Amino acid sequence: MKLKTNVDADTGKQDLVITREFELPLELLFKAYEDPEIVEQWMGTKVLKLENKNHGSYQFETTAPKGDMVLKMNGVIHEFSPNKRITRTFEMENAQFGVQLEFLEFEKLTDDTSKLTMHVIYKSGAQRDQVLQLPFTQGINMAHNRLQDIVSKLK
Amino acid sequence: MQSNSSIMKTRRDIFQAIADPTRRAILTLVALQAMTPGAIADSFDSSRQTISKHIQILTECELLEQEQSGREIYYHFNPNKMKEIAEWLLPFTKLWDDRFNKLEAIMKKHKPKKTE
């Protein structure tokens, strides 16, 4: 299946751009970022706090489907302009990925379509590359954890 | 997350190879036509030794391939290896694509609670 999402990550740079066109009116696309209940559904995370305003903050919590690993994410919202822009930071707690700065731009294409551009900036190119490898590493980590479980039971 | 370090330690991978601007320039040149090491070096201000080191790294990473032609060695560009870079981004792109597909599906069914 062809992916509708595009990720641009130039070599040696410390940022990346994620773009996606939606078959949704701009207002509905923005609502998916604004409404905590909807955020919970598509992000697969619990929303502990979501202050949609300039100088607000947010807190998400995800429990891994298997096991008791809890992932906590948080950030501050620098700018919140409905149907236009969200500027915020993002940080995964207890991880070595540091803080990233996110510029989310929401654009109307037609009455029924819209576009999201996410410009993400990391502290360094190395940090960005580490995050980009995360979907890989997660798989590897899961295998490792599994192994650890089995090994610890042998003791 | 401990296993990260072992992954980051992997040296001489294609990402390291293309992180250097001179090596990217070499790749661009050789992608246009196969070249001898001498011809590559002549295209740069750096010393022959420096360029030769860059070529060596690119060859170790299989981005360049050697071919003996008579008494000369020619370097060819290996486009298949470049594909690995695009493939590297794929899991990350897939992750976001899945999320956004979900968002789209949810919002298509979404009925506003309050009208006006």
TrEMBL record, chain A:
InterPro entries: ASHA1/2-like_C, START-like_dom_sf. Residues 24-151 form the Activator of Hsp90 ATPase homologue 1/2-like C-terminal domain. It holds the Pfam family AHSA1. Belongs to the AHA1 family. This is SRPBCC domain-containing protein.
